[in-house]
Each structure stands twice: as structure tokens, then as C-alpha cells.
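quick one: pyridoxal-5'-phosphate bound model?
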Amino acid sequence: MNKQLYSTLIFELSRHGRRGHSLPGYGTAKKFVLPEKFARKDTPALPEVEEPAVVRHYTNSSTNNFGVDTGFYPLGSCTMKYNPKINEAAVRLSGISDLHPATPDACAQGALEIYRRLQELLSEMGGMSEFSLNPYAGAHGELTGLMVVRTYHASRGEGAVRRKVIVPDSAHGTNPASAAIAGYDVVECRSLPDGTVDVEDLRSKLGPDVAAVMMTNPNTVGMFEKNIPAIAEAVHACGALMYYDGANLNALLGVARPGDMGFDVMHINLHKTFSTPHGGGGPGAGPIGVRKGLERFLPMPRVVRGDDGMLRVLDDSTETPFERTELDPLGRVSSWLGNYAVFVKALAYILSMGKDIEQVGPLACLNANYILNSLKEMYELPIPGPCKHEMVFDGLRDKSTGCTTMNVAKRLLDMGFHAPTIYFPLLFHESLMIEPTETESRETLDVFINAMRAIAREAAEDPETLKNAPLHTPVRHPDENEAALHPKVTYQSLAADEV
Ligand SMILES: Cc1ncc(COP(=O)(O)O)c(C=O)c1O
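yep, here:
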């Protein structure tokens, strides 16, 4: 291991007896003595470090990473937009952060009101009849949505025959994975050269054995699926349901609603569009919405308003004044109500945006098209624009230099940008997917565009330097296979390496 590539570990700063605090009176105060049976025999291996060293260590470590608060993060498909801090502040209000999830409903009316209002607003924005906020992520929402589909077909006595889910070849990998985990056979449907679904291919795969068609709009190459009404008509005619992957809803926010396009079930990634950053393993939330007639298949628990005006958490086991026949849910998919803090941020975001939320989609698309048009001379654009909120280049236009998308992405790190998404979607060899989002200014986009152009020039003039990038990051060329297969994420595993 080359130690110079890593910042010093807090354990390596440790000196026996050092303390990071001095509390007046400590030592003379009556000590609480832990009963012997609870006291551990060994001393925990904790670092002993003075306060300035602790503060500097963690402050410096935090700057070794890249975040949307430190710079432009054009990670295609991930909608890494800037999240206003006021929404974080809302979650930290003690009435919210100190509330135990088991608090009796009567004492948690405010918290339940937040849940209920978000349900209603998402229903309004999605053009759906009802939402459940319970699922923890987009993929979890997909799975839950497909379980709703399955329960719906089962309730009509068609559960056993409707065994297939159709997924376009451009779909995010979670779509076929969720369909398979929900017990369906996945049938792939082709895309046309313009990146949209081949309607004729889709039609040829429809039949009485199809349970649902999953679609993303705009799709994963940033194209609007303009044939949705015709597709929805054909899908419904064969008795199947339309599933909307709403991970790209940012592009449509304020302009179009999946429910109006003919979708029956959908999910939204709150951790993209609604003020929680995407990535890093969460926490997120993937609420699902359903059109009228499917509400009873939503999972439990649900927040409902009683005749007395009080909100209640309705669980399978709850004694309720509601007719059981009205609610025919598929059971639980989360503990408690889901990732509550994410709901609070989403509601705070929606309310603080007010009518400005109608600008989100148009500005996200404007920013993306500005980049597309500024770079298409130097980067290969397999699907001509205009695009929606993101675009895919197929690497540098000039392929003769041997410089790859990976080289471009690594060079961007040297220039202070997070890399775009690379080698996804799988439709092109050198995919480079850029999503600027609506939160970036014209000036930021210009600096990024100039950097991308400078990289393209470098590929022609000094390809060897480009192939060696990054040159200025704390870690330069990790073995990516090894890092994925045998990650070393603890002090012990690094220390064991040195023995
Ligand atoms: C189009 C699309 N669908 C589904 C997902 C899955 O969402 P999650 O990562 O929250 O599971 C993503 C994630 O980026 C996505 O881009």
C-alpha cells in the first residue's frame, strides 16, 4: 500500500493519554459507577487524540470526497441537484426529530399530517388517486408497485396466467430485476435508433399473459416517449397495466403527469427530485402511486382520516372503524411508515418552492440542451437532440486518439467536477451521460462546457496525459475490480494489509 495516497488515519494520530476535552469539575463530581456485571474487561481500541487534531482530521477527510455542496455533480440518471438547506433544517426541528415512531396517533397528529399532505401532493403531481410513501428506494418502489400489479391480477382471477412483464432494452437495470424478484418473466422490448420504444415490437409482445409494461419517461437516454398514449391504449386493451418508473420525474415536474398519460402504477424517487441527495446507499424513499380503483392494493401501514377528522395509522392488526373490504392491501413493505425524514424534506421542498415548482422540469431540460448543443461538435451524439433533462454522448467524436470515456471522466476530477455517469446506458460502447439539473447557473454550465472542450483538445494534442488522469486527486488509479471485489473499509483491514 502506498501510504502517501491516503490521508493519515485517526488511529495513527493516537497517542496514549491524549484527551480531546477538559471539563471543569470533572473528577471531583460524584462518579457514576457502572455495575461490575456491565463493565467490559478489555479497553476499547479507540483513538486518543487532542481536539484540534480531531477537527482537522475530519474536516480534511470531508474535503477528499466530492459532494453537490462542493461542486457541480452532473451524474446522469442520478439527478444530483442542489438541495436547499432549509429542508434539512425542517427535519431537525425537535417536534419531528425527537418523535418516536411508536408515539400514539393522538399525540402525533402533526407528523401524520405531514405524511398525509405529502401523499396528497404527490398524488396531485403524479395524476394518481392515492400514494403510499412506505418503500425505501426507487427499486423498492418498483418491487412494491409490481406486487400491487400482481395482487390486482390475482383479485381478478388472472394471477396465474399473467406471467410476463415487458421492459424496454433502455430501462434502468432495476426494472427487469424488480420484475424478476416479483416473480415475473421479463420480456425485453427493442428501442428505435432515436432511443424511444419500438411500438411495433412492443405490440407484438402483448397478449393475455402480460401483467404489465414498465416504462420510464423521459427514458434513460433522456428522450420523451411520445407514443405513450398509443402504447397505453394497446396495453390496456390486452388487460395489462402500465407501470411508470418515475426516477426521471424531475424532467416533467410542473409540466406533465404520468396519470394523464395513461399510467396505472408509478413510483417516485424522492431522493432525486424532492430534496434528498441520491446515491451513497440512502436513505431514500420510493413512494408508489396508483390510479383510481387500485387504492385497496397499496401496502400497509397507511395514514387515513377518520370521520372524526383525526388521522390514524392503519395497520393490518389495527382495530379500525373502516370497512376491511375497502382496504385489501398487500401487507407491509417497510418498518413503521418508511423513511420519515425524507418525507419531511420532500414536503418542505414542495411547499417552499410553491408555484416555482412548475419551472423545475423546463429549466432542467433547458440546461441539458444548452450542454448538448455546446458539446456536440466534440463529443459523439448518437441520438440527436433536443433531449429532456439529460443526454448521452458516445465518447469523444475523434476516436483515433484512443482516449476513452473513462479518461474524460477521470480528467474532469482534476478539474474539480464530479464525473458524469459512464458506460450507462448499455446501448452505446462509450456512454457518457450528463444531467445538469435545474439548480445550476449558466456560469457553472459554461465552466463545465469549457472543461469538456479542453479535455477534447487535450485528447488530440496530448493523449498520453489524458490517459494518465487524474493527476491531482488524493487517490489516482485504484484497481476498480479489486476495490469492488475486496473493499478495505476498516482500519483493521488496512492494518492487516501492512503486516
Ligand atoms: C431510471 C431509474 N429507475 C430506477 C432507479 C432505481 O432507484 P434507486 O436507486 O432508488 O433504487 C434509478 C436510479 O438511479 C433510475 O435512474
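The longest strand covers residues 210-216.
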